[in-house]
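Give me structure tokens for this 289-residue protein.
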Amino acid sequence: MDTVAFALVITSAFAHAGWNFLLKRSEHKTSFLWSAGGVALGIMLVPAVAFAFFDEPGWRGVGFGAGSGLIHGVYGISLSRGYQLGELSSVYPVSRGMGPALVPVFAVVLFDEHVSVLAGVGIGLIVIGIYAIHIDHKLWRDFAHPIRALTSPATRTAFVTGALIACYSLWDKATLDYLSPVTLNGFSMAGHFLVLTPVVLAAGTSGARTEWRLRGRSILAAGVLIPLAYTLVLAALTTSQVSYVAPVREVGIVIGAFLGVVFLGEGYGITRVLGSALIVGGVLGLAVG
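Here you go.
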């Protein structure tokens, strides 16, 4: 991975962890994400249409873009549900960690990409770090504790979210053959907003009104950070392999865990710091590899 792509992905990680923190702080999480998705769509609509006009993607590109929007919308539903059930410093690492575990395998099979030995070691360290994050520091000898956490509804939902992250990472890599990063991100933001719309309407609009009244600035901030984070990733994907970009982006796990532990008062602080250190080591291995 070259220096420019690495810088883009690291910046994206900060932006991504930031809007996830804002989402977790909200009360009506689906309504918050739907509202932020509307802001993001408003920001991306004109640039996405302009880039599409010059790129002339054709019906195949439109089809791939619509597929991306659908996956991103379902991902938004799953993510909101995960934060409704669990903590940021737990749900975020699990969901983001599923990507590095699945993407390289699928990327090798689907895109005939090759992963270096050093990059493979880096991916392994990330996976181990994610496991360590979920070890209760009061149960140092009970290393099966994170495995038992799989019975938690929050953890199961986080795994589903992670699988969806792997799906859209691979799908969007293929879609970039037909769409520019800006246009593709426009489709993604449209998916966030449109797929969540019936969910929000079914629950009533009072939640959305409450979120705008109490957290209007946070919604606007998230609406900016969501498209910014993914545009940077898509730009990196145009110059680097998906099996490297997706795992490096998971440095956001460290940031998300820090925000959850320090600013939301969530537990497991010691083990999550140790796990985060392993993840950073894995990220460095991927960057060098």
